[in-house]
Design goal:
148 residues, mainly alpha, 7 helices, 72% helix, 0% strand
Length: 148
């Protein structure tokens, strides 16, 4: 019961931080346009593959081509999974299910106690926010067509 409470709090916190309803509205517009999805995918791959993510440490200097390293980096795996699903007319629920599945597999299930769950969840949330901030910054600074 207390585990379920912790999971619920974590999910609510993630929803607040990412503002899923606004993201869903924006993504529906993007996902309904073949050209916008193509440009977005291209821009995302460019900022990641070309090393434009300006974040201290080696966390963001990995290439997605190295699957072993990717498996050790949950937030990069989550982003890669989302990017692989990006296609024109992708239902936003598919993307949300992807995030949900990854959270279940990498954050919720591995936690053996309430304290461990809190640590794993807060670590993931912090790194996920850093990653999304770094991607947004890279898209902005590189005048990516898809940004904005």
């Amino acid at each position: 019961s207390s585990s379920l409470t912790e999971v619920t709090v974590f999910v609510k916190r993630l929803r607040r931080k990412t503002d899923l309803s606004n993201m869903a509205k924006t993504m529906r517009t993007v996902l309904n346009s073949n050209s916008k999805v193509t440009v977005l995918r291209s821009d995302l791959h460019a900022v990641i593959d070309q090393g434009f993510l300006d974040v201290p440490g080696n966390l963001f200097h990995m290439k997605f081509r190295n699957l072993d390293e990717l498996q050790n980096n949950v937030e990069l795996k989550c982003l890669n999974d989302l990017m692989s699903l990006l296609a024109p007319s992708t239902d936003i629920r598919v993307l949300l299910n992807c995030v949900s599945s990854n959270l279940q597999a990498f954050v919720i299930q591995p936690s053996r106690s309430k304290e461990e769950f809190r640590k794993v969840a807060s670590d993931f949330q912090l790194r996920w926010n850093f990653l999304l901030t770094a991607v947004s910054k890279a898209l902005t600074l590189n005048y990516a067509d898809s940004f904005g």
